[in-house]
Amino acid sequence: MSDSNLFDKIISHAKEYGFVFPSSDIYGGLAAVYDYGQNGVELRNNLRQYWYLSMTRLNQNIVGLDSAIFMHPKVWKASGHVDGFNDPMIDNKDSKKRYRADVLIEDHQEKIRQKIDKEVEKAAKRFGETFDATMYRNTNPRVVEYQQKIDQMDGVLKEGLETGNLAMIKQLIEDEGIVCPISGSKNWTDVRQFNLMYSTQMSALDSGEDQLYLRPETAQGIFVNFLNVQKTGRMKLPFGIAQTGKAFRNEIVARQFIMRMKEFEQMEMQFFCKPGTELQWYEYWKEARLRWHKSLGTPDSMYRYHDHVKLAHYANAAVDIEFDFPFGFKEVEGIHSRTDFDLGKHEEFSGKKLRYFDPETNESYIPYVVETSIGLDRLFLLTMCQAFHEEEVDGDTRTVLKLHPAIAPVKCAILPLVKKDGLPELAEKIYNDLRFDFNVYIEDKDSIGKRYRRMDAIGTPFCVTIDHDSLVNGDVTIRHRDTMLQTRVKIEELSDILAKETGMNNLLKAL
Ligand code: GAP
Known about the structure:
Layout: H1 3-16, E1 20-22, E2 34-36, H2 38-56, E3 62-64, H3 73-78, H4 81-84, E4 86-91, E5 98-100, H5 101-127, H6 133-139, H7 141-163, H8 166-175, E6 192-195, E7 199-201, E8 211-213, H9 219-224, H10 226-232, E9 239-248, E10 263-273, H11 278-294, E11 303-307, E12 317-325, E13 328-339, H12 341-350, E14 356-358, E15 363-365, E16 368-375, H13 376-387, E17 388-393, E18 396-401, E19 412-416, H14 423-434, E20 440-442, H15 448-457, E21 462-466, H16 468-473, E22 475-480, E23 486-490, H17 494-502, H18 504-510
Parallel strand pairs: 3-9, 19-20, 19-21
Antiparallel strand pairs: 1-2, 4-5, 4-6, 7-8, 9-10, 10-16, 11-12, 12-13, 13-16, 14-15, 17-18, 21-22, 22-23
Helix pairs in contact: 2-13, 5-7, 5-8, 7-8
The structure holds glycyl-adenosine-5'-phosphate.
């Protein structure tokens, strides 16, 4: 199966089993906006909780925050978002469609990359076992020429974006003969910068003076509360503030399902430290965050670091953690050493001192900051992609989500074998005993096989079947999702088994 087929299957599965729905579905959906269904909300809550607890419970010096989405408009002036949070856009005059100019170029580069792969594939067939793909890529004249073209385009794009020379970028699109995917024409407008922030008014008056923005990141809520938290919590450096919450960006190019959304959720932690120690803490968080990702059972090979070569003007180190999605390695989380840029700017714009008095040195200074920033929706997508499996079982295909039990939406399904003879009543009793501690599900419809399959499809790690022997012996069959093995256990053991196998505290202890 091609990776794009696999990704299509994951998207259909997410809708069919109540994980993710298009927003306003009955009205035809809303581009790049999604709703989470009955199973999606449980999985997402579990992922968020795992992140939040691993930050706040496992680190004595990290505390939580929940700042408002609306903030004083000066916040976004100070942070640089009003003037600099832009994407370069270009319109096709025939189709009237708007595109991100850099994405048009990147898509064009991808097509050239595919040509390279085809050349290499053909050569591999021709030369057989002795074929050295790396040498071929480095020496075959046609492949080298393709690669040079890609590199040259990278250079022009980078220079155009960095120097703000948007005419250069338009020229590149024209020189490369890039056409609109809809109209097929090369009839382009100039490239213009387009701010990604959504704005609204505080009052009903549309005067523009009370213009507010929907926050494009949660981080600024942490910076402006730095002193509030530091003073009321009597926090000593180094310390961190963690928060999860919605962020909004007017992403013109909606792509890859919930990968790039207009309304999404971030989980961000700003770690305030003494100037000069930030790179040490940067290394610490870089390593700690990758360890956190892997703790959910994903193989090491699915992750990689991508160091930023060109740093933002306020950063002195930055790295992305990338995951190998069906459409290739893409960013899931960023770790950034942001120096004293944000607090310094807020000090300048607010006129309020945002300093830390260091009792050890008797000096006041603006702390440096290392940020970890992960998108909850991207983490959700990664988790679905990683968990989705199709397996042949007895000549049939079973679709199973092999989610870590601690994040699975439903921990255990209680299934009476038949709908009579007192089995539903015993199932109800077991359900009522367990539901205070675990998200359990009870169902007596359809054959037991069909019910198992439905539970596999939403990643339920355990199914408990109640049969006639259960009434006599007080025991039940417990079926394990991944192995499909079944064992007999006493009803009173169920709670301990579920706590041991599905508790989030086990994940936290192992970190
Ligand atoms: N405070 C830093 C910051 O916002 P970012 O790289 O722009 O950095 C951090 O965003 C993370 O937020 C990304 O790694 C990604 O997981 C997530 N993210 C950003 N834009 C997103 C979007 N449009 N849709 C979904 N997730 C997004």
